[in-house]
Structures are given as C-alpha cells and as structure tokens.
Amino acid sequence: MKLLQRFAFVLLVFAPLGLLAQQSGDAAMKIFIDGLMKKMTIDEKLGQLNLPGAGDITTGQASSSDIAKKFAQGKVGGLFNIKSVAKIKEVQKLAVEKSRLKIPLLFGMDVIHGYQTVFPIPLGLSCNWDMKAIEQSARIAATEASADGICWTFSPMVDISRDPRWGRISEGNGEDAYLGSEIAKAMVRGYQGDNLSENNTIMACVKHYALYGAAEAGRDYNTTDMSRVRMFNEYLPPYKAAVDAGVGTVMASFNEVDGLPASANKWLMTDVLRKQWGFKGFVVTDYTGINEMIDHGLGDLQAVSAKALNAGVDMDMVGEGFLTTLKKSLQEGKVTQRQIDNACRSILEAKYKLGLFLDPYRYCDEKRAATEVFTDANRKVARKIAAESFVLLKNQGNLLPLQKSGTIALIGPLADATENMTGTWSVAADLSKSISVMAGLKDAVGGNAKILYAKGSNLSEDSLLEERATMFGKTLHRDNRSGPALLQEALAVANQSDVIVAALGESAEMSGESSSRTNIEIPQIQKELLQALLKTGKPVVLVLFTGRPLALKWENENVPAILNVWFGGSEAGSAIADVIFGDVNPSGKLSTTFPQNVGQVPIFYNHKNTGRPLGDGKWFQKFRSNYLDVSNDPLYPFGYGLSYTHFDYGDIKLNRSSLKGNQTLNASITVTNSGSKDGKETVQLYIRDVVGSTTRPVKELKGFQKIELKAGETKTVTFKITPADLKFYNYDLKYDWEPGEFVIMIGGNSRDIKSAKINWTK
Ligand code: NOJ
C-alpha cells in the first residue's frame, strides 16, 4: 500500500478509535481495542474467533467464493493455508472494505521447516544441534512467508516423542526436553524476531499443546495418559520454553490429557498455560479439534464448543462450533460474555501487534514476493544447514567420503525422487524445484566421474501402501516393470561401477500426520535390493531417507557405510553430494534413539534405573529388567553421530568436587581432533542426580556446545553448572533442586561419556 493510501486508511477507519497512539505500547493497544470492542456486536466478536481454511479460493475468485459472504459479515477472524500476495490481498480487501468494522484478517500457514526454501524436516534439523543455524532457518522461513502474505505460522511443533511408530515424530525435535526447549526458543526467536510488527517477522504458534507425541501405540490422534511428574519433567518443558520466549499463540492438541481432550482441558489451557506460565497470547484449536470432541464422547457441538471456551480456547480452527453455537450458550448461561470478550480481545491484540490495524496489507508486497523468496542466498544457507543435519551412522574402513572419479552407481527409489526431497509438511514448496540426489551428485562430479542410475525397486511391493505414502504430489513415479526386471537392471548398472550409492528408505509421506507404522524397517523389497547390491562385492553406501528412527539392525551389521539424510529440504541433493564427497564433514547427532527393533519401543536415553537394573556390560540376567531376545541397548544412542575425523576426549576436570548453595561448578574437558580432517563436534553434558525424593533418570542432557576443530587441534570445553541445572519437579510438582551426590558426564553422545562425581549441599 502506498504511503498516502496507508495514511488515508488509518485516518478514515481508525483515527476515531484512538489508533494514532498505536506505537506507544500496551496502554495504547488497550485503548484502541477497548474502543473497537465497544462497537462490536456479539456476532462480530464470535466472528473473530472463527478460523476457516482457505478451501478452494483461487486468484481473482475470492469475492465469489462461498466464504466471501462471511468476510463481509465479519464472521471470520483469519484464514489459513492460502498462498500468494495476490490472493491474500484480495481476501484482505474484502475484510477491510466490505465488513462493517473493517477488521483485518490474520493469514496463517503451516510454515513448518521453511517456506519455498525448504530446510530439513524438523527431526533432521534438530540433529544439527546448532541453535544459531536453527534460528536462522526460522528467520528465513519468516522472511519468505511474510513476503508472500503470511503473518502467522503453525510452528514450532515441539512435541516430545519416544515412539518411532508415530508418523509425526518427523515434525518434532526428538526425545529430549532440554534439547527440545532450546530448539523451541530458537525457532520462536527466528520467526518473531524482536518486533512482530516488522513486515518480515511472523507470529509463531507452538503446538501441539500438550503431549501429542505420547499417543498410545504410536497411533496418531490416540489417547495419552501419563503422570504429572513425567509431564512436567519430560514433556511440557519445550512448550513452556516457547512461552518464555514470547510465542504469540498456542495450538491445542487433538489428544486427551487426563481424560479430557486438550481443547476442553481447563487445567492445561488456563491453570498451567496462563496462570502458571503467564502466557499472554491466544489459543487456537487444531483442525476441527472442537467438533472432534463429539466423537471423544463429550456431547453435541454446542456442549463441546462451550467446554472449549470455558477451558480457555480462543479460536476455533475450521469447525465453526464457536461461530454457530456460542451465542445460544451465552443466552443459556453456559458461557459468559466476559469469556467471549477475552477470547476476542486476545485475537485483536495479535492483529494489533502484527501491525495489521496500521496497514492490513503490511505483508502483501509484490516486490518482496518477487525478490525475497527462494533466493540463491536462502538456498545456500539451506544447503549448509541440511548437510550439517545429516547423521553418519556407520563408516567402516572410511568408505566415505567418495572420490569424484570413476563410475558411481546410483540406485534406489529415492535416488531420482525430486518431489520427495522436502519431506512432509512443505505446503508452500514448489516440489519440482528440489534437488534430487541424482542432480546433486551429477552437479558435484561434473565431468570427473560417471554416474549411472537405476531405480532398482519401487518403494514397496504394495502399490496401495505406495499410494498412501506419496500423497500431496510427492510421487515416486511407480515403475510398472516387474520386481526382477528392476533388480536386474540395477545389478547391471552396479556391475559396471566402482562403488554403489543406494538411496533407500521411506518416502516423504511415509511419516508425518496420519502416517504411523507398526513396522519400522526399510520396506522389504528395498532390503532385498540392498542385499543383492551387497552381493556384487562392490562397496555400498546406504543413503538413508527417513522421517523417523528406523530399525536397522541388519543394515548396521552388513552395510559398510550408512548416511542418514532424513528429508533434507529443497537443497537435499546438493547437501548429500557435499557430504558424500567430503566437501562437508558430517556433524549431525541423533536427537532420538534408534532401537534395535520395534519391540524395544519406547526406548530413550533418559530412562529410570528401576529397582532391578541390568549389571554393567550384561545383556541378560534372570530377574533383571531386560528382554530374553534382545539386549537393552539401542542400535544408535541419543546424541550419536560419526564424523570423517575422530574426536578424543580427555578426562573431566572440575574446579571443585564439593559445592554449597549457589556456587558454580566449572566442568571442563579437552577435545582433540585426532584425525586428518577439520570437523565439528557437539560436546554433550549429562547429569545424574544419584539420590532424590522421587526416582531420577539415569542421566539427563543439561548442556551442549557445537565446536569446530581443525585437524590436530585441541580445545577445552567448559560447562558452567549452577543449582538451576539440577532442578526438577518433585512429587508435589514443586520445581527445586535437592542436595546430594551428582554424576557429571561429558561426551560425544549419551553412551560414550567420561564421568566425575560431586557433592552439592544446600
Ligand atoms: C492439523 C495438524 O495437526 C496441525 O499441525 C496443522 O497446523 C493443522 N492441521 C493446520 O493445517
């Protein structure tokens, strides 16, 4: 909007409401919103609580769409998953020109791991352990989304999950509350910046509050049930961290907590979120979250809508329960005017903070849309971040990195799978613009090496499974030739090559929403392909695509090199080439445990000791806590990831071994790069509270530092530990630390650690 027009808009529409004081903080906001709300009818207030999806609005058609009437009648507070400045401008125009009070709309979207420049899926990104890089990914996502009309993202998703069967484990940051909290803060900072009203920052929405990642049996939307001690210590911290970082909105999860779906759970939405944590923004439900409470068995639409408002929910995504029933509930005394006013106010405040009252077209700048989205600079950052998120799981005989010479056989259903590179939840991406492994490798070798390709197999023998796992345009171009024909072609290619790169695993939509699995292995047909490739006797590198920890026992025993590349985003193929040829030394570390088999699930590093722990070095003892058929060990532990160089850890040095009160413990360790390549290492600090008033985990992550070491270089890493690091929620949910003995552990993963003991009195 041109300056003059903008001024005229402000003057004509909002000057009478005291808007000119907009810049002067909360008091001015209150005056403005008080003034506006005095003019609003009950229907207009309920309209603000209504968030429909964009449905089928196409450019130039907004005014004739079904939803247009609702904009004009003030029955909509925001719209989501509508894309492009042109469309958003058109819709916003209807709201601010046709509705009585001319209140602008919020435009939300699932900008989960990038906008058009796509970063690794969150589970992959979390393996980067570089908070600046993670923040930068959110900053770039915000810049691109806001350039394209969006001012609100449904991210970060911070659900802790210890269950690889659950498809949405791919959307979160793994199993650990501390790492998850650090990432939650970095993401909120990245999206929201310092000033929400800047036109390149967007409002974040932490989700799915709460405990969605603990769905029973890993089945999506399923019940969760856990003790409050576990909730507060192990699952709630990342949501709280986002609130502490100033997140503007919170999304209620689909699941029940303590027998009440989150959207009707007053304890969660009001007592914990608002009263205990001091959250000041608004709560939106998940998609039809209110209506689904009918199936949960909590009553009809009017009843469940009233329950949601009573619990502290402000905005109703898609279901229109608020819009269509709350007036009646008000008349019948089932909800109060004050509750409706509070919800309406919190949404108007968000709009105010985003600067939408000052300029409803603040985020609709065609020039920005044309120059700030999917830029070379953004893509370069995405490529670097992706390469540093990959996790090298095995590298026998230093097979990797490969030389850019000779003949390389590139084989597998994920090798030339452009549309799958971004992974799940990449709604704004142009899938055809991603870099496949084939494109990345070819570009990297230029004329110096020959790349031969064969698909080798489809994703699965089961075409129906493949259909379900390749939705939303993420096709794998199923090959109709027979399995043996595909295999034969692959073997012919392999036999002409010096080395085989096998790009196998899951497709992008094999994880994500409603994509849970009971079998977490590489699909059988691909395993058979891998076995046949190994039989050729050529060296095989497995480039593993996955949105979850997979059970890779056989692969770990038989394949010499395994590089887990998750879904690396729009630049995945280039980043994979960077690591395969050693231009980037891998430094990703797992944010979630890889089990030996699905029967070990849930398996996580910060478990309790039990009263019958297994003896050190044993894998079975009668009458101990273990299995008959498999050891308790994970296949790859939390925090694990190899490098092309090697890091040696010295012993832990402490500035003191007994402490009192608020003293600070300095725990230092030397780390030496004893290999011949420069590299990055994430040094991890774990603490065990040996005796507690409740049982305590065998170790908990309490700090980490990602450092860079030249070949041969040694650095000393110091962690400063204070009593704040020892705090936990006790049986009475009091957050404090308890004096006694602690074990300080430092290492390159949660298994291979050095340790030292201390005593800390109050
Ligand atoms: C449902 C998903 O659970 C949530 O994560 C997403 O933000 C909404 N749909 C909106 O698309």
3D structure, described in words:
With 762 residues, the protein is of the alpha/beta class. It folds into four domains: 1-39, no CATH class; 43-365, TIM Barrel; 379-600, Rossmann fold; 647-761, Sandwich (Immunoglobulin-like), CATH 2.60.40. It contains 23 helices and 27 strands. It has a six-stranded mixed sheet with strand order 11-16-15-14-12-13, sandwiched between helices. Strands 19-27-26-21-22 form a five-stranded mixed sheet. Strands 17, 18, 20 and 23 form a four-stranded antiparallel sheet that branches. Helix 21 links the parallel strand 14 (499-505) and strand 15. Helix 3 (42-48) packs across helix 15, helix 17 (376-387) crosses helix 23 (572-580) and helix 18 crosses helix 23 (572-580). The longest helix has 17 residues, at 131-147. It is globular and about 75 Å long. The N and C termini lie far apart (61 Å). It binds 1-deoxynojirimycin. 1-deoxynojirimycin (NOJ) is lined by residues 110, 154, 207, 286-287, 513.
The main sheet comes to: 6 strands, mixed
Principal-axes geometry comes out as: globular
Task: Provide the CATH superfamily of the largest domain.
Answer: Glycoside hydrolase, family 3, N-terminal domain
| CATH architecture call of the largest domain | Alpha-Beta Barrel
Strand order, sheet with most strands: 11-16-15-14-12-13
Q: Looking at CATH, which topology of the largest domain would you report?
A: TIM Barrel
Bound molecules: 1-deoxynojirimycin
Number of extended strands: 27
Strand percent estimate: 15-25%
As for the number of domains, it is 4
Helix- and strand-based class?
alpha/beta
How many angstroms does the end-to-end distance come to? Answer: 61 Å
The first-level CATH class of the largest domain is given as: Alpha Beta
Low-confidence stretches: 1-12, 15-23
Number of helices: 23
Radius of gyration: 27 Å
Query: How much is the average pLDDT?
Result: 95
Portion in helices: 25-40%
